[in-house]
């Protein structure tokens, strides 16, 4: 039986542009440290084979020390390691795949065509290919069929299955079915996908190893699997990231906002980056997003609180008053009733809140 680890899309040296500069630099350092945690996992779980399906770097020209640390971490793994460069870290002149000295246990696929690497001690062959530029408009699996020689055959590629556009190795389902591979390890899709079986081939995307923004939510990690002597594949997802990005929507209608948020939060959020969206109806002062963020910030790695509440309908009833407040509300109410969509109404609600706060000499923050 072969034990393997399948990871992809580390995107080392990502900018983390949404974070403050100091925190972004810390996250980049943490990403490099994660590599050595991964090496410890490989060695502690008797992994035979490590399959890394591209975009390990965020660009084809990362910082030199990042390449050095990746090489050092992979060299610590007591396993054979295979890498298929992707569209971000494509193989070419000056790329770290060419300039870095990779350990003996590491094989980097460098051709824009499927090539074979034998692993005799496991009676196994790994077939892989590389992006050699930022685009790969033709499927790298097209026309490929593994030989029927009694060995276990695995594929390693960065690409999409039936992609919407032909830019990132658009693999077709029928190509996977005809490949003769026991397992096809894929990268490029940052959201973990449940394994697919096409023909006799199991294929999967593990998603990115760690989220980098609020478009990469939830648990991140890798697949750990086994391949039996008969070629049967079994997979389990292993959450591995120290930080998660999460978006939490909380309806605070008729509630104290802080109490409502605390009731909705899971118990342990210390390492996570949260965006909390406050919804529902509130009084003139809104939900107090700034104060809420200040009160809860130490429970998170990073916290955003956004007030998406609307003014309670009964507040607009004061538009009938014979006062400056009534005149102000009547003008906005007419615009609100004529608004074309919810976004326009939300802007008018916000204007009403700030206007009423000004009339009452209150500070909305």
UniProtKB/TrEMBL annotation:
GO molecular function list: exonuclease activity
Q: Which UniProt keywords apply?
A: Exonuclease, Hydrolase, Nuclease
Q: Which InterPro entries match?
A: Calcineurin-like_PHP, DNA_Repair-Maintenance_Comp, Metallo-depent_PP-like, Mre11_N
- Domain Calcineurin-like phosphoesterase, chain residue ranges per copy: 2-191
Q: Which Pfam families match?
A: Metallophos
Task: Kindly provide the name given to this protein in its UniProt entry.
Answer: DNA repair exonuclease
- What is the scientific name of the source organism? Oscillibacter valericigenes
């Amino acid at each position: 039986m072969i034990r393997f680890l399948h990871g992809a899309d580390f995107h080392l040296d990502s900018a983390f542009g949404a974070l403050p500069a100091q925190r972004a630099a810390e996250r980049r350092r943490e990403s490099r440290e994660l590599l050595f945690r991964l090496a410890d996992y490989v060695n502690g779980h008797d992994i035979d084979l490590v399959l890394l399906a591209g975009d390990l770097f965020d660009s084809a020209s990362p910082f030199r020390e990042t390449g050095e640390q990746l090489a050092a971490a992979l060299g610590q793994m007591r396993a054979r390691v295979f890498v298929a460069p992707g569209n971000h870290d494509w193989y070419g002149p000056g790329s770290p795949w060419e300039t870095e000295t990779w350990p003996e246990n590491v094989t980097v696929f460098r051709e824009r065509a499927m090539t074979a690497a034998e692993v005799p001690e496991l009676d196994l062959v790994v077939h892989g290919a590389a992006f050699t530029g930022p685009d790969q408009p033709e499927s790298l699996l097209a026309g490929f069929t593994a030989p029927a020689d009694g060995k276990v055959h695995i594929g390693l590629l960065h690409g999409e299955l039936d992609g919407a556009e032909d830019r990132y190795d658009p693999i077709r389902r029928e190509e996977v079915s005809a490949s003769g591979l026991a397992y096809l390890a894929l990268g490029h899709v940052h959201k973990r996908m449940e394994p697919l079986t096409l023909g006799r081939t199991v294929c999967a995307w593990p998603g990115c190893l760690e989220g980098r923004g609020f478009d990469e939510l939830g648990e991140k990690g890798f697949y750990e699997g086994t391949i039996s002597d008969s070629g049967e594949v079994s997979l389990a997802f292993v959450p591995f990231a120290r930080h998660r990005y999460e978006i939490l929507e909380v309806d605070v209608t008729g509630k104290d906002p802080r109490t409502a948020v605390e009731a909705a939060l899971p118990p342990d959020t210390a390492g996570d980056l949260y965006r909390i969206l406050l919804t529902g109806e509130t009084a003139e002062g809104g939900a107090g997003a700034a104060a809420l963020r200040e009160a809860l910030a130490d429970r998170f790695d990073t916290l955003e609180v956004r007030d998406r509440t609307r003014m309670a309908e009964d507040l607009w009833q004061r538009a009938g008053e014979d006062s400056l407040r009534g005149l102000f509300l009547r003008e906005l109410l007419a615009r609100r009733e004529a608004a074309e969509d919810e976004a326009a109404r939300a802007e008018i609600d916000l204007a009403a809140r700030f206007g009423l706060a000004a009339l009452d000499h209150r500070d909305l923050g």
